[in-house]
Amino acid sequence: MPLSATLVASLSAADRAIGELAGVGAWHPSPRILVDPFLRREAVHSSRIEGTVATVTDLVLYEAEASASRGDVREVHNYVRALDRVTDPRRGFPLDLWLIRDMHRTLTTGVPRASTVPGEFRNSQNWIGRPGCLLDDAVYVPPPVGEMRRALQSLETYLRSPSPLPPLVRIALVHYQFEAIHPFLDGNGRVGRLLMSLLLQEWGLLPQPLLYLSAYFERERDEYYDALASVSRAGGWERWVRFFLRGVEVESRDVVDRALRLADLRAAHHERMRGSRGAVQQAMLVDHLFERPAIDIARAKERLGVTFGAAAHHVERLVDAGILQEVTGKDRNRVFVAWEILDLL
Question: What are the angstrom distances between the C-alpha of 269 and each of 92, 133, 188, 334?
């Protein structure tokens, strides 16, 4: 694919922005405090593109076992699990079709509305269009099963082979190609966006999975679909790649801004607890809240390795400091939320 002057300018801007983000990820003393909040934000936005109705608050309350196991929240939680699994540097399995199937299996297992077999490529024709439309009225028809399998083999070869193209351009091409193949009956969009996040780390652009594009794709939903479709209709590769690179630039700068504000908030919370009885344990709880902004006493007990009574004391100190707020109104099985952290997401 030739790179025009305009495309080179877009690539340069995206490279600078993602380089700044990589720097933020490298200097932070506890990268998980940055990774986990954005991972959960990505899970919500990526699932929302597919029509799932859930918020970051819904997700963290679900993880704290404070809410019923709603199907929508389970889908979002599965996205968190899938992304955490594939971006773990200790994962122990290569970048191949098995990994893509594993993403899909994690995403769709236990989801009632999923119209697919978890982790299995389709064995029938699918199509994209308005809900309930027939094949003749489809907006896009992916390749038949035989061609799909050959295309997947080619995609796997491309993922594992060196290329003279810049990594960001390659990731844009891979995302289009995966969406065009559409190898699952359901969940293709989410798997495709997971694959982007994985490749940003796998190909050395980021030290941790810090950048996600689903918020950008959701805001620019019409342009996202139109840019993808322009490749299929008229070979509009430059339009799609420029749209993708603009997303990398915009979202990298947004994450840098949010990450710095999260770091400032963490420092302010630590300062609030300085000098109090049990300040060390309370600082540990503060750091845990940046990973998961909702907590109950049992989770605090497990995190700190103390008695239930001691854990309750430390949680109450965070409530007194205005860091946590109880949200259930119950006398037992109470759950506490760090709203300032959620607000930054």
Answer: 37, 53, 40, 22
Q: Does residue 69 surpass a pLDDT of 60?
A: no
What is the DSSP track for 12-49? HHHHHHHHHHHHHHHH-S-HHHHHHHHHHHHHHHHHHH
Distance of alpha carbon 247 from alpha carbon 316, whole angstroms = 42
Domains of the chain in start order, with CATH, are 5-258 (1.10.3290.10), 274-344 (1.10.10.10)
Alpha-carbon distance of 118 to 115, in angstroms, equals 9
| Contact in structure between 170 and 159 (CB atoms under 8 Å) | no
C-alpha angle 129/133/135, rounded to 5°?
80
Tokens of 161: 């082979």
The pLDDT tens digits of the residues spanning 147-185 come to 999 999 999 999 999 999 999 999 999 999 999 999 999
Of the candidates 145, 266, 126, the residue with the CA atom closest to the CA atom of residue 189: 126
